[in-house]
Amino acid sequence: MMLTAYDPFAATNAAFRALDQLTGRAGAGTARPLSGMPMDAYRVGDNFVAHFDLPGVDPGSIDLAVEGNTLTISAERSVPQLENAEWTVAERPFGSYTRQLVLGRSLDTDRLEASYHDGVLTVSIPVAEKAKARKITVTRADTPAAVEGRTIEGESSEQKAVES
């Protein structure tokens, strides 16, 4: 069975094919370079998690780099190389994907983890220990000995008594 489709823009598509041939994308039909990398991001527990849609990408082409607090994700989806194929429709995007995220300083990028499954890249970054909420213990200081040793604006109560 052959795929047939009505194309009201046949002349435009022919122009795109001619442009593709001139730019070295021969046989690519009307395919367009990649324009985005859709993302979902959320925090769950002590982790920041982001999912990026990268369908058809070779996992070996995925590159993650952290510089300062910027995460850069790059990947490439290659044009299928089919011998003697005459493209009828080529709408699936190909080319290079790149996306940058500016991360909060509270994330521990040294422990970043990434996995790729079913066309989705998942990046998980734990919250840094120093940025996690913590409980502060308050001690009771209602005895005269505890009050006398307390520092007020950098001076002990003995120093204040000498100055008076």
From TrEMBL:
<feature type="region of interest" description="Disordered">
    <location>
        <begin position="143"/>
        <end position="164"/>
    </location>
</feature>
<comment type="similarity">
    <text>Belongs to the small heat shock protein (HSP20) family.</text>
</comment>
<dbReference type="InterPro" id="IPR002068">
    <property type="entry name" value="A-crystallin/Hsp20_dom"/>
</dbReference>
<protein>
    <submittedName>
        <fullName>HSP20 family protein</fullName>
    </submittedName>
</protein>
<dbReference type="InterPro" id="IPR031107">
    <property type="entry name" value="Small_HSP"/>
</dbReference>
<feature type="compositionally biased region" description="Basic and acidic residues">
    <location>
        <begin position="150"/>
        <end position="164"/>
    </location>
</feature>
<dbReference type="InterPro" id="IPR008978">
    <property type="entry name" value="HSP20-like_chaperone"/>
</dbReference>
<feature type="domain" description="SHSP">
    <location>
        <begin position="30"/>
        <end position="142"/>
    </location>
</feature>
<dbReference type="Pfam" id="PF00011">
    <property type="entry name" value="HSP20"/>
</dbReference>
